[in-house]
Amino acid sequence: MAAAAGRSRLWAPMYSQKELTSKKRDEFEDILEERRQSSDLRYAMKCYTPVIYKGLSACKPSAIKDSVLQSEQLQYVIKQLSKEMGESTDIIQEEAIEILDEMGHNLHIGAIRFFAFSLSKIFKRLFQKVCVNEEGIQKLQQAIQEHPVVLLPSHRSYIDFLMLSYLFYTYDLALPVIAAGMDFLGMKIVGELLRRSGAFFIRRTFGGNRLYWAVFAEYVKTMLRNGYAPIEFFLEGTRSRTAKTLTPKFGLLSIVMEPFFKREVFDTYLVPISISYERILEESLYAYELLGVPKPKESTSGLLKARKILSDNFGSIHVYFGQPVSLRTLASGRIDRCPYRLVPRHLPQRLSEDIQDFVTDVAYKMELLQIENMVLSPWVLIASVLLQNLPAIDFELLVEKTLWLKGLTQAFGGFLEWPDNLCANKAVTSSLALHSNIVSLVNGQVVLNDVGMEDGATEDLVFKQALSILMCGAYRNQLLNVFVRPSLVAVALQMTQSFRKEEIYSCFNFLRDIFFDEFIFFPGIALKDFEEGCFLLTKCDVIQVTPQEILVTEKGNSVAAFLAALFRPFMEGYQIISRYLSKETKEAFTEKQFILGIRNFAFQLLETGSTQCYEVLSSDLQKNALAAFVRLDIVRRMKTTNGFTYTVNKEALNKTAEMFDSPIPIRKLVTARL
Amino acid sequence: MPGAPISACSASRPPQRVTSHPAAQHGSAMAAAAEAAAGSGPGSQPPAQRRLRILSGHLQGSPASRAPEAERFLSPSQCRAGGAAEQPVASTIPKKRQEILKWNGWGYNDSKFIFNKKGQAEFTGKRYRLSGMVLPVLKEWMEKTLGASLEHKITSRAFLNTSDVPPSIVNEEFLQDLRATKISYSQEAEDRVFRAHGHCLHEIFVLREGMFKRIPDIVIWPGCHDDVVKIVELACKHNLCIIPFGGGTSVSSALECPADERRTIVSLDTSQMNQILWIDEKNLTAHIEAGIIGQDLERQLGESGYCTGHEPDSMEFSSLGGWVATRASGMKKNIYGNIEDLVVHIKMVTPRGVIEKSCQVPRMSTGPDIHHFIMGSEGTLGVVTEVTIKIRPIPEYQKYGSVVFPNFERGVACLREIAKQRCAPASIRLVDNAQFQFGHALKPQVASIFTSFLDGLKKFYITKFKGFDPNELCVATLLFEGDREKVLQHEKQVYDIAAKFGGLAAGEDNGQRGYMLTFVIAYLRDLGLDYYVIGESFETSVPWDRVIDLCRNVKERIVRECKEKGVQFAPFSTCRVTQTYDAGACVYFYFAFNYRGISDPIHVYEQIETAAREEILANGGSLSHHHGVGKLRKQWMKESISDVGLGMLKSVKEYVDPNNIFGNRNLL
């Protein structure tokens, strides 16, 4: 089908159909088990001699700073800036030193041991288990010796990088150097401790500051070239408040790829790491944030307040170290010649389109690899079922549906950790217990709690309801990237009410475009995504595919309905937003105005009961929708002196609204479910 | 560095002098590699030159007595007619090359590496400084580095089986015309096979175990420029294909006959055009027939007190015409320049006629320099017959030297600084650690306990006292030339710079050995081939700022490719910086591996070499610094010089040789 053409992609997407079900994943080991049996102090004082990169030229952090300052790259930018601004190079050099000091990391074995000790204590209290695939660790250990390594973990919690450094210490690996947001610097003691255990800090936004960018880029590259330590950063850029993988950011990734493009290193390994939490530490915080209650600034006292959290139980963590991916192998056949052959390598250059496309593809590939190895807990399934059966569901029915969903998830290639030693009833019960802040079992019925917090006297009912739904939704969301392809096919089937493959595909394509910021799709391969979805549905006997047609089977109806319902909050959310845009907005608006406006609009709808879609209140969904509309030219974005303003392209909006509002779909689903 | 073709002439033939033409590329693979790497071998009195001196050295009289000698050459090219006047000087290599050269390997029949009865390596013959010496640690090195074992031997067939050789198909009318010219020719299988190849690995492999699909049908030995004109005319008349042959040291498949060539292939062997026609002492130039080989040229000029200073590592065998045809580079280019700097005038016979400039001047502004169409044309346009080349008085003093650096990076930084200050000695080469260790493997048995004690002391000083890591350190070899006083001054300057980069002077002897090895290393490949080890060398040029990255990446790529292709033993993958320029350097790689357990070693080898070249290009290196393109590297020509660039070259070919008489299909 024509639409699939897009950019030519030399390497296939990650989810090959054959691998999906037979996918072998490594076994997990619980590292806390040993911690519970031996002295933390001795552990913290253990002999720590990590393996190092074979080409490492040993150097101190201060030597790294010097070589960054003296690098041709940075000196070039300093000279340029001095010419442009008429300042002396010394002054700019001073500035560069300041930036570097603010950013720089430091490694102190004392700080590391302190962390090792205290984190052991903390983790043992917070978590039941910390499970790690040791095979992945072994591969990583090998990789670290061969080539510079870049660690790309998923980002769901502040625990992420603490946990990774802790694991690296445990397994005697060189502690990663972490690009962390400057926010941490506000946390005085912790910030310094983090710095001493290898974190370096970056401002969240420095788009316009060339000096900052140059210092930062050179700093990262210098560490990478020296093979000083693995570099760690988050492709998603920030913690995902919704537990859905965020679309990748490319800046840092292109920096770490540059030494390879310039052939300053032979290769670079990219290691996707999936960190899955059975219960996320920040779960309620995130829900508040999504609803527009501003996030508290990170501070040490804030962290201390969080101490009460310590008495709580957060279940298990699974850390899966993916197979190290050779950048050279990825680039082979795509970027075969050094793009810097005809200019000195230290000159800053705009990335060519080829390279930009390549960086984009690598970023998506890495995120898809993360998703592939995210562990799904029983609770994820329970939350998904529950959200389709509000306000309450019979416990037995819940167990039954959860088991059914378990089968479906496995068929779709989801990585499920099911407590096989427990009967289904007990497994569900223990999950409910772990999440008793969100759900409770009342008279054989499972219901959502009112999560309204103590200090939230002013909160109305809608807000409370939204809080618990968003919290619950964050767990269901973990399922979505595994289900998105077959589900969008199911949605398309229902929207079009057609058998014609062509029509269904075009609807699928429309949905994929609209939701491109919401879920992770590898760019440019819509047809493959579609075929993938069809393949999975066929495999589960939901549909039959002929060359021209797609038919839903008798028993497939209920599955298709479930799949469509899974994505209904997004369908409805986007519909509401497009309705808001077509009716309520005046000429130009800012993102802030948009979010406030849509929030009020949605509150009204919810209060009057004309929608049940609480998730439209999520600022994440609102921002994604806006981004999608901008991308599809439904909303036009203009740069002004202070930020961006937006205007609606009514014509395009109407067309999209029509697509959404085609008479049949959503409502019918609702009835089907009831 | 590049090997250039060579030519030979038989002493028995009467005076023929002629010139040569393009021909082959240079250096044998390993040899060339060696050469290149070694830096310019000659610097000192490398073997070749030394040999020259020994052979003809007695003749050297006072400069005064030389002058008349020079005069003797002055009867220029009347070819046979003029021949009556003088007895021509005989070449070191006979017309029947197989009489003294190996037919299936590198160099002289009498010189080769063997394992003696005690299982120790030995280099036979008397020609080189290493000849007759036992090399006690070579065996261990081969076992350790390459996983070779004396028990696993695979020998070449001993003789050329003439019945395998493709028949000579030559049209009788042409033969009649040819006979009428009285130019010497041969249709014998041995002569034809000898000129069907250069010294690429695959070519030697074929000689040892198989047979070429296509070889020349006839070998012709013109004696002078006019003979060449006649031959080219005949070729045009009868529509034949001519492949010029000089010294046969090509390492770019340049001499390989296109398998689908249906026309008669003439191998035009320039070796009998080997006379110095005149020496002009006022302008310091000499006019020479292009078939002369390097060692003869330097020896004969030496008799008059002069030299060209052009010493590619293949200079024992490669020819002047071949140097021109491949854009050769000599190890002492820092003083004398590369071939393009040396040449003052070129005469080339093409199907369109003879091309030459009207005067012999140092420089002219008359449009693009036509010499640059000729240099590097690799035998695709015509035959270079006569060349006027710059000569210099033989330097009064030569001195070798060497410097040990703690690591390769520091060594490169030092070379860069020396290039920056433009004070490079005649030759300066930097070998990496693997090659440094390899050099040790070629150390002859030590004569006395005292020497071995001294060696031990030196080693102790460098590794223990100075803290150099024996697995990191690397060595630069140096050759200084000129007035004694200036040399000593120069030497001090260079050592002072080296000291700033942590370099320690490591003695003359090490330096001299380094250059000597250049000439024998080519022989080593033949030994390897006997024990399942195949190897080759290749080179590139690269800007200074990428030298380190390129060296590391290419070596690593080789190691990785070997692993992926199922090579069971880690390969020997090493490099050296062999020339320095203002803007960059020439880098030479050696690569060898043990192919036991691999069914198609040559194919695997070629894949790896291709990958290595890809890596070089990806790192901003060139397709070739001096080996040339031939057929081996044609696939990358377009990206190397752009579509338009390639089109320009094609249009020149189209004009000069519309019927593709010079059909070796190199380059384009």
TrEMBL record, chain A:
<dbReference type="Pfam" id="PF01553">
    <property type="entry name" value="Acyltransferase"/>
</dbReference>
<keyword id="KW-0472">Membrane</keyword>
<dbReference type="GO" id="GO:0005778">
    <property type="term" value="C:peroxisomal membrane"/>
</dbReference>
<dbReference type="GO" id="GO:0008654">
    <property type="term" value="P:phospholipid biosynthetic process"/>
</dbReference>
<dbReference type="GO" id="GO:0008611">
    <property type="term" value="P:ether lipid biosynthetic process"/>
</dbReference>
<dbReference type="GO" id="GO:0007416">
    <property type="term" value="P:synapse assembly"/>
</dbReference>
<dbReference type="InterPro" id="IPR041728">
    <property type="entry name" value="GPAT/DHAPAT_LPLAT"/>
</dbReference>
<dbReference type="InterPro" id="IPR028353">
    <property type="entry name" value="DHAPAT"/>
</dbReference>
<dbReference type="InterPro" id="IPR045520">
    <property type="entry name" value="GPAT/DHAPAT_C"/>
</dbReference>
<dbReference type="GO" id="GO:0030054">
    <property type="term" value="C:cell junction"/>
</dbReference>
<dbReference type="InterPro" id="IPR002123">
    <property type="entry name" value="Plipid/glycerol_acylTrfase"/>
</dbReference>
<dbReference type="GO" id="GO:0030913">
    <property type="term" value="P:paranodal junction assembly"/>
</dbReference>
<dbReference type="GO" id="GO:0061024">
    <property type="term" value="P:membrane organization"/>
</dbReference>
<keyword id="KW-0808">Transferase</keyword>
<comment type="subunit">
    <text>Part of a heterotrimeric complex composed of GNPAT, AGPS and a modified form of GNPAT.</text>
</comment>
<comment type="pathway">
    <text>Membrane lipid metabolism; glycerophospholipid metabolism.</text>
</comment>
<dbReference type="GO" id="GO:0019432">
    <property type="term" value="P:triglyceride biosynthetic process"/>
</dbReference>
<keyword id="KW-0012">Acyltransferase</keyword>
<protein>
    <recommendedName>
        <fullName>Dihydroxyacetone phosphate acyltransferase</fullName>
        <ecNumber>2.3.1.42</ecNumber>
    </recommendedName>
</protein>
<dbReference type="GO" id="GO:0004366">
    <property type="term" value="F:glycerol-3-phosphate O-acyltransferase activity"/>
</dbReference>
<keyword id="KW-0576">Peroxisome</keyword>
<dbReference type="InterPro" id="IPR022284">
    <property type="entry name" value="GPAT/DHAPAT"/>
</dbReference>
UniProtKB/TrEMBL annotation, chain B:
<protein>
    <recommendedName>
        <fullName>Alkylglycerone-phosphate synthase</fullName>
        <ecNumber>2.5.1.26</ecNumber>
    </recommendedName>
</protein>
<dbReference type="InterPro" id="IPR036318">
    <property type="entry name" value="FAD-bd_PCMH-like_sf"/>
</dbReference>
<comment type="subunit">
    <text>Homodimer.</text>
</comment>
<dbReference type="GO" id="GO:0008611">
    <property type="term" value="P:ether lipid biosynthetic process"/>
</dbReference>
<feature type="binding site">
    <location>
        <begin position="378"/>
        <end position="384"/>
    </location>
    <ligand>
        <name>FAD</name>
    </ligand>
</feature>
<dbReference type="GO" id="GO:0008609">
    <property type="term" value="F:alkylglycerone-phosphate synthase activity"/>
</dbReference>
<keyword id="KW-0443">Lipid metabolism</keyword>
<keyword id="KW-0472">Membrane</keyword>
<dbReference type="GO" id="GO:0005778">
    <property type="term" value="C:peroxisomal membrane"/>
</dbReference>
<dbReference type="InterPro" id="IPR025650">
    <property type="entry name" value="Alkyl-DHAP_Synthase"/>
</dbReference>
<dbReference type="InterPro" id="IPR016166">
    <property type="entry name" value="FAD-bd_PCMH"/>
</dbReference>
<feature type="binding site">
    <location>
        <begin position="244"/>
        <end position="250"/>
    </location>
    <ligand>
        <name>FAD</name>
    </ligand>
</feature>
<keyword id="KW-0007">Acetylation</keyword>
<keyword id="KW-0274">FAD</keyword>
<keyword id="KW-0809">Transit peptide</keyword>
<comment type="similarity">
    <text>Belongs to the FAD-binding oxidoreductase/transferase type 4 family.</text>
</comment>
<keyword id="KW-0576">Peroxisome</keyword>
<feature type="site" description="Important for enzyme activity">
    <location>
        <position position="429"/>
    </location>
</feature>
<dbReference type="InterPro" id="IPR016167">
    <property type="entry name" value="FAD-bd_PCMH_sub1"/>
</dbReference>
<comment type="pathway">
    <text>Glycerolipid metabolism; ether lipid biosynthesis.</text>
</comment>
<feature type="region of interest" description="Disordered">
    <location>
        <begin position="1"/>
        <end position="49"/>
    </location>
</feature>
<comment type="function">
    <text>Catalyzes the exchange of an acyl for a long-chain alkyl group and the formation of the ether bond in the biosynthesis of ether phospholipids.</text>
</comment>
